[in-house]
Amino acid sequence: MKDLELPEIQVLILSGGYVTFVDSDDWIEEDTYRYMLEVAFRTGAEIVGCASVVDYEDGTQVRNYADISEGFLDRNTCIIDILGQTRHAWGAVHNKVFKKSIFDNIRFPKVRHLEDYVVTIKAFNEVNMIYFCSHSFYHHTSLPNSLSHSSWYPGRLAIPETGEQIVNYLKNNNADTVVRKYTYRFMYLLYAGVLWSIYKSKPDDARTIRANIRWRSLNVCREYLLHGPKQRGDIKMLLQFILSII
Known about the structure:
Strand content: 15-25%
Number of helices: 7
Largest sheet: 9 strands, mixed
Number of strands: 9
Helix content: 40-55%
Shape: globular
Radius of gyration: 19 Å
């Protein structure tokens, strides 16, 4: 195993031509990679992911994917999971091992949000075999001062832009119809999230910020209502969207 130190993430080059990623403030259980590599070698899976646990500062732990059985997942299921925001962390790179050759043509974008989604969606789209391990090997540390928990700062305006890159990639790479439908929901969720964070934080230039993204936000909302799949809780989210854009 070879370690490559980066500022916020550690890249581990594993035996057998596999690579994985570990966030610097997270931790993994003993024998995590032994187990996942054995699965990869036994099944031939190009990507092997595992369940994860979110560790909070107060000692609370929340296990993700408790309702998923161990076994193979198809690429559309994995991509839709990210676009629909139905499960925390499955779109992240940190609870998976990847066949190293997948990264011959994939690079992390120079962005501060959704960089994992850009990489993972491309990886899912390029492989044939994805395997899910039901054991919670990976522990994600939830930090209240992290970027993902920040209510508002100007850099959040770049989130929908990165989302557009993901959507364009899927369109240009012949994504299935069902996947393309979820891109409408994905973009709506991103714009709704940005607008709601502006509404809650009320920065001094909130009116100007909303004016700059209002028409694109409304168009994204219209496309979602016309073409996107609907889920429980959407009415509440739509009311928040309307409240935050006026």
